[in-house]
């Protein structure tokens, strides 16, 4: 279970407009997301001794964080503005707790700061790529056009402000009944991310199942109870097919059962089809299959064609999805939001994997969705993954030149890894060595 940090979110309001920011794509937490200025509460924030009628009753640590974050990110002192009469009201909008499927968890306190006029900001460009005044309606329209990456509480706050600019004390948590459905978020409009528990590798415990247009991608509940919850969650979706990104079982467990129950076709690459049927010849019995290849259109998203992109390396038959505008990219196991991708076995190829990373980086989608974890803005995560793989390759080259054996390399490079994952680390080493030999790097 990840730790939970307290945070504040500063919703500046003036003349019916709000001041959101787009976070830089290279940030570790929520990169590329549209949000409000703010951040985690630090110990030093509790030392605030500010007094003013507008913050009476507000815990010192929260006000201290609000004042400090506004100075750091926007270059303004809200306490000075209060004393000048430019701040007309401060209201608590509500509190949002990040669900446990996200590796970064916050208890975020949202406050609206109402201003009589717009201050001159000096925005910290290290934090914000874009910072601008806009109406709540224009924010919502931008999100609905697929141009924004937004966490549910932020979108909920903007919708509340659209209806009442002085809204206060609303529930901002993700609203779902864990006993009957699986959690779902829609950080990009029209890309619904359902998150059933699955039999995947730790530290992940869920595999994302997406609904885009009329297709369901990678349903893989861990058991029949979780399958029932997933079916309850998607009961109002109008589906025609299930698309499987690749043959690993944590991406299709119970998928044939769902296909038969809902009378859906299954889209899958020929390679993945053959690998699955090599160990379960009756797996797709009674189901119509469609084989996938590069460039095929599989559905529509906001009026755009969504096409197949072949992404071998982790699995030779793995496919990804991307709309014509490149607004998002469903990457399967090309990278992980939680954990590390394994490149190994008969289906894995480190040389292909690194080429695929370069291919997707060149496509430069606005956001990338992993199979485990939430979407991330831009391709910085792919660039970091590629850099890490190249660094690891050079380490292995050096160790091979020292005549180190596989077991020795494993102990040196993965000395602190969870023992349950050692066999997968060994697979990665073997795949690196295979690439090194093929490319004659030693």
Task: Characterise this structure.
The protein is α+β, with helices and mostly antiparallel strands and 442 residues long. The protein has two domains: 4-163, Nucleoside Triphosphate Pyrophosphohydrolase; 184-338, Ribonuclease Z/Hydroxyacylglutathione hydrolase-like (Metallo-beta-lactamase, Chain A, 4-Layer Sandwich), CATH 3.60.15.10. Helix content is 30%, strand content 22%. The chain has eleven helices and 21 strands. Helix 8 runs antiparallel to helix 9 (380-401). The two termini are 43 Å apart.
Summarize this, please?
With 442 residues, the chain is α+β, with helices and mostly antiparallel strands. The protein contains 11 helices and 21 strands.
Write the layout of secondary structure elements.
Blueprint: E1 4-14, E2 17-18, E3 21-23, E4 34-35, E5 38-40, H1 60-74, H2 78-83, E6 87-97, E7 105-115, E8 128-131, H3 136-144, H4 152-163, E9 184-188, E10 191-194, E11 209-212, E12 215-217, H5 224-233, E13 241-243, H6 255-262, E14 265-269, H7 270-279, E15 289-292, E16 297-301, E17 304-310, E18 319-323, E19 329-330, H8 350-363, E20 367-369, E21 376-377, H9 380-401, H10 406-413, H11 422-438
Parallel strand pairs: 1-7, 12-13, 13-14, 14-15, 19-20
Antiparallel strand pairs: 1-2, 1-5, 3-4, 3-8, 6-7, 9-10, 10-11, 11-12, 16-17, 17-18, 20-21
Helix pairs in contact: 3-4, 8-9, 9-11, 10-11
């Amino acid at each position: 279970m990840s730790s939970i940090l307290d945070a504040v979110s500063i919703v500046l309001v003036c003349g019916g407009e709000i001041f959101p920011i787009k976070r830089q794509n290279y940030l570790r937490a929520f990169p590329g997301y549209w949000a409000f200025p703010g951040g985690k509460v630090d110990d030093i924030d509790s030392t605030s001794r500010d007094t003013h009628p507008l913050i009476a009753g507000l815990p010192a640590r929260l006000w201290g964080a609000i004042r400090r974050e506004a100075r750091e990110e926007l270059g303004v002192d809200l306490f000075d503005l209060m004393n000048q009469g430019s701040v007309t009201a401060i209201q608590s909008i509500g509190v949002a707790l990040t669900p446990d499927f996200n590796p970064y968890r916050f208890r975020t306190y949202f406050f609206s700061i109402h201003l009589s006029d717009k201050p001159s900001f000096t925005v910290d460009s290290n934090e914000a790529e874009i910072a601008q005044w806009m109406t709540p309606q224009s924010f919502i329209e931008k999100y609905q056009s697929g141009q924004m990456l937004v966490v549910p509480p932020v979108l909920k706050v903007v919708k509340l402000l659209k209806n009442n600019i002085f809204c206060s004390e609303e529930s901002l948590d993700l609203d779902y009944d864990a006993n009957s459905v699986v959690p779902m978020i829609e950080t990009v409009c029209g890309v619904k991310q359902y998150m059933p528990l699955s039999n995947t590798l730790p530290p992940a415990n869920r595999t994302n199942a997406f609904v885009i247009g009329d297709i369901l991608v990678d349903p893989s509940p861990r058991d029949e109870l979780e399958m029932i919850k997933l079916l309850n969650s998607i009961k109002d979706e109008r589906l025609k097919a299930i698309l499987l990104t690749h043959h690993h079982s944590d991406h299709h467990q119970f998928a044939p059962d769902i296909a038969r129950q809902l009378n859906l076709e299954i889209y899958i690459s020929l390679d993945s089809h053959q690998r699955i049927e090599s160990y379960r010849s009756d797996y797709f019995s009674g189901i119509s299959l469609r084989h996938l290849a590069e460039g095929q259109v599989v559905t529509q998203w906001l009026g755009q064609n969504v096409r197949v992109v072949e992404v071998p390396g982790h699995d030779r038959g793995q496919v990804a999805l991307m709309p014509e505008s490149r607004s998002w990219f469903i990457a399967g196991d090309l990278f992980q939001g939680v954990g590390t991708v394994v490149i190994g076995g008969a289906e894995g190829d480190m040389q292909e994997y690194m080429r695929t990373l370069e291919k997707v980086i060149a496509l430069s989608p606005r956001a990338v969705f992993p199979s485990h974890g939430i979407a991330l803005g831009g391709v910085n995560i792919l660039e970091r993954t590629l850099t890490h793989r190249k660094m690891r390759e050079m380490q292995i080259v050096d160790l091979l030149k020292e005549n180190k054996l596989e077991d020795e390399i494993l102990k040196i490079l993965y000395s602190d890894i969870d023992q349950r994952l050692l066999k997968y680390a060994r697979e990665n080493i073997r795949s690196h060595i295979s690439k090194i030999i093929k490319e004659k790097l030693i």
